[in-house]
Each structure stands twice: as structure tokens, then as C-alpha cells.
Design a protein that fits this description.
Elements (H helix, E strand, L loop, with lengths): L14 E3 L3 H20 L16 H25 L9 E2 L16 H17 L2 H29 L1 H10 L11
Antiparallel strand pairs: 1-2
Helix pairs in contact: 1-4, 2-3, 3-4, 4-5
Length: about 180
Amino acid sequence: MFCPGLAPRFGPIGAEKRPARREAYLYRAVTVAGIVLFAAGGEQFSRAAERLWSFEPVVDYALVLVVLSGMAFTWWARLYLGRLWSSSVTKKADHRVVDTGPYAIVRHPIYTGIMLACAATAAQLGTALAVAGVLVLWVGFWIKARLEERFLRGQLGEGAYDAYRQKVPMLVPFGPRG
């Protein structure tokens, strides 16, 4: 089995095609708004960031493990993609549907790992702004994932991408497919 991330080529491959810039504005604006809210949810940044709850230390430590697990999942997915990775929605040379490794668990494992880590952080912070920020951030990632899927479906072929969509959930393991 071929593992793209373990190939000896680590540098990025140039983009062959991207969606129109205007298509990316919405997910970028929503994501930035989520990040701002999330950051404002930290007690050090705002008096409005009053804690709604707090946990016993053992739960805080467990949440740290969840954050680390989310980030590890994100890095596994990033390394697994190797040169096919891009921070923006892009079709690269020799692009193909990757459906093994973390991409056999969810179609967007990088987003899933980041969302898991942010959710655990917001739970630990216990502020309304942090929770609101995570919810808005999730919407931003969902919008980007949908754009990416429409774009890649058109670029890589409807049949190949549709078959992948039918067997692997989008963002939540064991969640809905399609």
C-alpha cells in the first residue's frame, strides 16, 4: 500500500488549479471570526470572558490529552498527505483521492483534529466566548470542507470522489456519510 506522507518528497507541489478567490471569502471570514471569538474567550484578554464552569484538575488533565490527541491526528493527516497538502483548496499535479490512513477515518482529518483540540480547549476555558468561537470555527471548517469537496469532485472525477464520500464520513468518525 502506498503512503503518500512517507514518500521521500516533502516539499510542496505547485498548484495546477484553485477555485475562484471569491469562493474562499466566506470560509475565511467565518474562520477568522471564530478565531477572534475563541481567543477573546481566554480570561487574559477580556473581562467578558468570565468562566461559566470549571473542572477538577483530573478533568483538566484529561482535556489536555484530548487537545494533544487532536493535534496528533492533525499532524498525522498532514504528514500522510505529504506533497499533496495545501493550506488552501487546491488541485496539485498528480492529485488523487487519498482514502487510506487518517483519510479512511474521516475525509477531512486535519479539520477534525483542529476542531477536537479547540473544543477541548474551549471546554477547559469554560467561557461563553470560547465556546461561541469554537462553534463559529466549526462552521468555517464545514464551509471550507464543502467547498473543497465540490472542487475536488469536479477535478478528480465524480465517480472516484463519490465512492469515497459514500464510505468515509466528512468530519466526525462514525458520523453521516455523503
